[in-house]
Design brief:
The longest helix has 32 residues. Strands 1-2 form a two-stranded antiparallel sheet. The protein contains 17 helices and two strands. Helices cover 72% and strands 3% of the residues. α8 packs antiparallel against α9. By secondary structure, the protein is an all-alpha fold.
């Protein structure tokens, strides 16, 4: 695996820290949702998320339930950050190098194909064939959160592998959502959405830096996708992928700005120079901001909001399902659980072995096959994306079974993965 220098490690380490802490908050909100949904206040709790909220503009009114605004609106920001993460990996991460990318890409493919296959086989002739995409997902926040429980015993190379795998997995889930779970397409609305994306590219190309301009265009793209039949969160992903990954101002130009500012600072201090120095300070601040790429700046700004607000709110609105025997033993729930618990580790390990044996890939440094097995099971934590896809695949009772299966499979996968990693990874001095 690639060795990162300190400059390249900074966004990666920040990402891990936020995801680990966010995973804890996400878990607490999921538990809270389950408690409410199985309490005497269940009916009030479930009814709250169905309260309609309307937004009017001109002669048009858009009305959705609170849950729908969360799933279609707030989650668009979640998917926008996923788009940023994917582009970062493609431009400066593990997926930039073909040799380094082979293993996580192969593992992710196996981790998507096998769960879908096992789901289909386990479901048999029962209803629910549309749910094959549910066990394909991996929840980065939970996986990183559980890895953090093992501290420094987890090699950095294994963390990078799991993170890269999960990002490729997210990309696969996005493709499935766009291709499979989109219905009643409106080519007119979709064309307007892509015109908005083209406008975003033009704004980037001509150097527009005003954030409100991008918010307006992005909102219009979201509306177009909302009415197109393609899930509006796909707009978030595409906007994330279009975000520039290079800074507007290079290091050399910034040094020139600093030199000019220093020269002005040592100029004779008179009243007539004060406005000029104020302008120089403003110019220096603007230049410093533009030495960081829009991609990195947006990711650093939005990632905490996604980890500590959007995903927990999504869990509160969607993880509250009644844990009744009928849902737990439903064919869909069992098929989803088997897809996550068996399909993920088998697919990841099988395709990793094939990549190493035939494509020249290598195991992450300081990582054994036993640790890879543990990582494969941890990747079976689907939760957020699995529940999201369940919402698109099912309605009513079958939706409850799909969510229960996703949560059950994720819990079993997390338990087995942690136990295997605890035994497989060498104990540090602090642990002994």
């Amino acid at each position: 695996m690639t060795t990162f220098n300190n400059e390249k490690e900074r966004p990666f380490l920040h990402f891990l820290h936020v995801e680990a802490a966010g995973g804890v908050v996400l878990l607490l909100c999921a538990i809270l949702a389950l408690v409410f949904a199985n309490s005497p206040w269940a009916s009030s709790y479930l009814a709250f998320w169905q309260i309609p909220i309307s937004i009017s503009f001109a002669d048009h009114t858009l009305t959705h339930s609170i849950q729908a605004w969360i799933n279609d609106g707030l989650m668009t920001i979640f998917f926008f950050v996923i788009g940023l993460e994917i582009k970062r990996e493609l431009v400066a991460g593990e997926l930039k190098s073909t040799q380094a990318a082979i293993l996580p890409i192969a593992a992710a493919l196996g981790g998507m194909l096998l769960p879908a296959t096992i789901y289909t086989l386990a479901l048999g002739d029962h209803e629910g064939a549309a749910g094959w995409g549910i066990p394909m997902a991996t929840d980065i926040a939970f996986v990183v959160g559980f890895l953090s429980l093992l501290g420094k015993r987890v090699p950095k190379s294994l963390k990078i592998f799991v993170l890269s795998l999960a990002i490729v997995d997210d990309l696969g889930a996005i493709i499935v959502i766009a291709a499979v779970y989109s219905h009643n397409l409106s080519l007119t609305a979709l064309s307007l959405g892509f015109l908005g994306l083209a406008a975003t590219m033009i704004l980037n190309r001509i150097g527009v830096r005003q954030v409100p301009a991008y918010i307006v265009v992005g909102s219009l793209v979201w509306l177009a996708f909302l009415f197109s039949g393609v899930h509006p969160t796909i707009a978030g992903v595409l906007l994330g992928l279009l975000t520039p990954a290079s800074a507007w101002i290079g290091d050399g130009a910034f040094l020139d700005v600093i030199a000019n500012f220093t020269k002005q600072l040592h100029a004779p201090h008179t009243d007539e120079h004060t406005p000029r120095k104020s302008r120089q300070i403003s110019h220096l601040i603007a230049a410093a901001r533009e030495t960081v790429s829009p991609l990195e700046r947006l990711e650093l700004a939005l990632h905490p909001w996604v980890a500590f607000f959007i995903m927990p709110v999504f869990a509160l609105a969607n993880a509250g399902v009644p844990l009744v025997t009928e849902a737990i033993t439903a064919p869909v729930a069992i098929a989803v659980s088997l897809g996550l618990v068996l399909g993920k580790p088998i697919g990841i390990l099988l395709f990793s072995w094939l990549a190493i044996a035939f494509l020249g890939a290598k195991l992450p440094s300081n990582t054994s096959w036993k640790a890879m097995i543990g990582a494969g099971f941890l990747a079976g934590i689907g939760f957020t994306m699995s529940i999201f896809i369940a919402n698109l695949a099912f309605d009513a009772d079958m939706l409850v079974a799909g969510k229960v299966g996703a949560m059950t499979g994720s819990f079993i996968s997390a338990t087995i993965g942690l136990l295997i990693l605890y035994c497989a990874l060498p104990r540090s001095k602090a642990d002994s």
